[in-house]
Amino acid sequence: MSDSHAIALTINGEEREALVTGRDTLLTVLRDKLHLTGTKRGCNQGVCGACTVIIDGVTIRSCLSIAAVCDGSNITTVEGLAEGRELSSVQLAFSETGAVQCGFCTSGMMITVKALLETNPDPTIDDIRKGISGNLCRCSGYKKIIDATLVAARSVNAGEGS
Amino acid sequence: MSLSPKVIVPDELALALDLLADDDESMCLSGGATLVAMLNANLVEPSSLIALKNISEMSGITMQSDGSIGIGAMTRHAMTASSALLIGSLGGVKDAASKIANPTVRNMGTMGGSIAFSDPAADYPPALVAAEAEIELQSKDGSRRIAAEDFFIDWYETVLEPGELVRAIHLPKPDENAAGHHEKFARVEGDFATASVNVVLAMEGDTCRSIRIAVGACGPVPVRNLEAEDVLIGSSLDEEKLIKAGSMLAQSCDPLDDVRGSADYRLGLVRQLLIRAVQQAKDKLAEGALA
Question: Chain A residues with CB-CB distance to B under 8 A?
Fold first, then answer.
């Protein structure tokens, strides 16, 4: 097929390869080619945040990333949060606080919260609201998500891992 | 389903400019926050995408020898929103950057990409007009500079010619005795502005020494009204003058009715946002004086 680009990505520490067209977004590659379906396609316009991943240390909308341009990047998806079967602090906090209803926003939320806590380990509620302002949740009203973020922050600060 | 564009990621600006000149159906890809959304929605069909992310000289905020500030077109909003160089009269540009969308989109979007699109509801256009920015355009045949207020010419239209890209945005040396503020009203945090008012203010004691006001999201391009500014210059920025200036400003605006608000609502907002923007700018000046 003409206009195909071979790309190499490091995803959650693993080297992966894919053949992509010019239009393919990173979201398409993650879900449809690499079968990492934890990252969700919500609006495909960058507004809802369900597609959020971490690339080279910063949160990025995978639906707005042209895959061919991501060649060589280091990516963390929701599948990379746990260590084997051990959930990360953020995942545990979301689970135990009841911050997950339908679960569709959850991947993007946890990735965003993980990145937020890495730059701001002791966020105020206002910091959290602003930090997750790019992640829409239709179910929860956000309160438990904010609570879960505070729980995760406390546990990270108590040295219980990330 | 459209054909896929070719994707090219040049390391050198010269190559990017050659590619742009050779193919008038090619498009530059900066942050992708707007262009890829449009591709996903099948609203554009470029023959190729010239990704600018590896052209390092196009990114970054630097102070020139004359004190002016250069912002590379590929500079992400997150960097602009936290720049220590955008002080005093340039604070409204920093403020505008911090109010674009949300943290993740601010990691991706760039100033050059944003202004090249000339979205009438975007935050940079009024900020750059109020801050007296100049836009540097470049093609393989050379470069030129245009004042921000002449760069945006209509809904989603700028003076960019085929083969040209935005190379950098230049801001004058900051006046540290002035303050800039971007007052934005949106339906929810992170939305485009329903209306915005950007103000650059300098005071002489309790008197307004100078003021520049630009309104966003109330017409095809940012709106200024020099008579409204004249009403305020030399005044104590009292309520009566602000109401009068706000009224004159609203009269220069030509907003639409759209999903974010009616034209009438926007005109009402402009009056209120002017009052708030001036108060915020005054507060920043007071804080600066104490610092």
Answer: 3, 5, 21-25, 44-46, 49, 52, 58-61, 63-66, 68-69, 71, 112, 116, 129-131, 133-135
Nearest-neighbour CA in chain B from A131: distance (Å): 7
| pLDDT tens-digit series, residues B218-273 | 999 999 999 999 999 999 999 999 999 999 999 999 999 999 999 999 999 999 99
The widest CA-to-CA distance across chain A, in whole angstroms, is 53
Is B240 within 8 Å of B231 (Cβ atoms)? no
- A1 pLDDT band, cuts 50/70/90, is very low
Mean pLDDT over all residues of chain B? 97
Q: What is the pLDDT of residue A162?
A: 53
Looking at the complex, does the CB of residue B43 fall below 8 Å from at least one CB of chain A? no
Tell me the C-alpha distance between B146 and B167, whole Å.
Answer: 12
Q: Which of B11, B36, B79, B117 to mutate to test the interface with A (most CBs of A within 10 A)?
A: B36
Q: Residue A22: pLDDT band by 50, 70, 90 thresholds? A: very high
**Pairing between β-strand A52-55 and β-strand B69-72 as defined by DSSP bridges:** unpaired
Task: Give the closest-approach CA distance of A46 to chain B in angstroms.
Answer: 7
The whole-number pLDDT of residue A159 equals 77
Alpha carbon distance A11, A73 (integer Å): 8
Q: Which amino acid is at A128?
A: I
Nearest chain A residue to B52, by CA: A69
CA B80 centroid distance within chain: 11
Q: ipTM higher than 0.85?
A: yes
Helix (H, G, I), strand (E, B) or coil at B81: helix
Measure Cα distances from A96 to A43, A63, B279 in Å: 28, 29, 45
